[in-house]
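User: My instructor asked us to take a sequence, write out its structure as tokens, and then describe one feature of it. I'm not sure where to start. Here is the sequence I was given:
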Amino acid sequence: MSEPTTLPRVYGDGDASFQAAGGETGLWLLVRDFYRLMNETPRFARLRGMHPADIEVSIDKLARFLCGWLGGPPRYSEKYGPIRLPMVHAHLPIVVQDRDDWLECMRQALVLQPFADDFREYLMIQFARPADRIVTVCAHAATRRSG
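Assistant: Let's start with the prediction itself. The structure tokens for your sequence are:
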């Protein structure tokens, strides 16, 4: 009788993505690098301007959000309650270039992490989905405010 074969877990399955990111510690490192790049890179100055001067709450919120979003513990909702990602950004004038800059900043932060290449690619695809939705919601909100 042969041993049962264990198939590798697929990103997005249970906590596979959370584990691939190094758990909470790995996500905090990613988010700290993301905001450090945002602070240091002139291309991302507009993004940085959409955040409060004290970036620590933004770091906390993103790291906690990513924990739950990637299948780990729901750290964001434990501290801040439910999140409606596009709606939390609806008050901001986010346009396509902002989305592209956010994704580029995150891509650069991902390169700094000890993640597998296929996991980085997976994350970029996953990040693009809510980023697109946020642009749509913000454009709709801006139209309603001006009309």
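For the description part of your assignment, you could build on this observation: The helical segments are 16-20, 23-40, 45-49, 56-69, 75-80, 85-89, 96-111, 117-146. Try explaining in your own words what that tells you about the chain.
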